[in-house]
Write a structure and sequence with these properties.
Layout lengths: L13 E5 L2 E5 L3 H9 L1 H16 L10 H17 L6 H5 L16 H5 L11 E5 L2 E4 L4 E3 L27 H4 L33 H21 L2 E6 L1 H15 L14 H4 L12 H7 L8 E5 L20 H4 L27 H5 L5
Antiparallel strand pairs: 1-2, 3-4, 4-5, 6-7
Helix pairs in contact: 1-2, 7-10
């Protein structure tokens, strides 16, 4: 495991969840100061983390070599932390694959269970009464505080009313589970775009960058609406169905449909459809959202009455370039300027260095 250039002698406490592993590193105040002031050092720090997170996507695939290694490592880690009470491991060790449920470092949790002043009881609870719990075997446990971790409904529609065409609500649309197009739109709801909607989260990789890409995608749609005098833009129902078929096909080979309950799934975490995660890696999602497929949408333009079409090329304007009109900020010889000249590699443009680093896309 890389140490990110952080020396152990600078140790305070920092836990970074990288891929499936937990890196315990040392960060002193001077270390934080360097990260904030030394841009190259900070870039190297971030790059190592992001590369590591994006390199473990095979962890999410059933029976992959990385999945087997991860399970062995996690089991060994749990054995180590529960050494004082090894009998607890049998109750806590999951039967499902690593990643079926969301991973969490959980610092101190297993260590706390192994303390002498903690009783680990795995007998099912029958009911609560007064100040106590009655267990399945009839034993009664008196409590000072009862903490209920009930979870949350991640696949729920927006908490505010959203009504689309034909008076259909989003709640009705998302029954029995949510279906979208690339997690950003759904049919029946023109001009409605979503961030962190159904199937927008990620199993491995960076969610924040995916959110940025989604924001860029939505902005491109808004600019198209504005520039081309479009009244409404609605994804085609067939494309929503296509994305659902991609989701169903993809997740069959992953660990997410193992026998576990998680917020990734429909029906309160117990359904057989994944509604929380993107069907692929974070890098895959970024590439898919990079360039909108305008042909996947239906449009209604300003001036159309439902029977005929207006001039949909009205955006061509008066024949002048903005650069010619705004001479103060524009450059009317921009095609010669360094940084704007695109010289592709030979024999194929996808061999250009930029496209080697970031996949070539139409």
């Amino acid at each position: 495991m890389k140490t990110l250039g952080i020396e152990s002698t600078e140790c305070k406490a920092l836990e970074i969840h990288v891929g499936y592993s937990i890196l315990t590193a040392a960060v002193a105040p001077e270390q934080k100061a360097r990260l904030s002031k030394d841009s190259e050092y900070y870039l190297n720090f971030r790059t190592i983390i992001e590369r590591d997170a994006n390199s473990v996507h095979s962890l999410t695939l059933k029976n992959s070599s990385l999945q087997k290694i991860a399970r062995e490592d996690f089991t060994a880690l749990m054995q180590e932390k529960l050494a004082k009470k090894p009998h607890i491991l049998k109750s806590l060790l999951p039967s499902f694959s690593v990643g079926c449920r969301r991973l969490t470092p959980g610092p101190g949790y297993l260590e706390a269970l192994a303390e002498d002043n903690v009783d680990f009881i795995d007998t099912p609870i029958s009911f609560a009464q007064g100040r106590s719990l009655v267990l399945g075997d009839g034993e009664e446990k008196e409590l000072d505080i009862l903490v209920c971790a009930t979870g949350f409904q991640a696949s729920a529609p927006p908490p505010f009313p959203v009504t689309g065409t034909n008076s259909q609500t989003m709640k009705e649309k998302f029954e029995p589970y949510a279906e979208t197009y690339l997690s950003v739109a759904t049919d029946g709801f023109p001009n409605y775009f979503m961030m962190l909607g159904p199937n927008a989260a990620i199993g491995t990789g960076t969610l924040t960058t995916m959110m940025e890409m989604t924001g860029d995608y939505i902005i491109k749609c808004i600019r198209k609406l504005q520039k081309e005098n479009i009244l409404s833009m609605e994804v085609k129902a067939r494309r929503v169905k296509d994305f659902s078929e991609v989701i169903d096909r993809y997740f069959k080979k992953t660990v997410y449909l193992d026998q576990c309950s998680s917020w990734y799934r429909s029906n309160g975490g117990k359904g057989d459809r994944i509604t929380g995660l993107w069907p692929g890696s974070a890098l895959h999602a970024m590439e898919c959202l990079r360039s909108p497929r305008w042909e996947d949408f239906d449009y209604v333009y300003e001036g159309e009455d439902g029977q005929g079409e207006c001039n949909r090329l009205g955006w061509l304007g008066n024949g002048w370039s903005v650069a010619q009109i705004d001479r103060e900020g524009g450059e009317i010889a921009h095609f010669l300027q360094p940084g704007l000249v695109d010289i592709p590699a030979e024999p194929f443009p996808e061999d250009t260095l930029m496209f080697k680093q970031r996949p070539f896309s139409y």
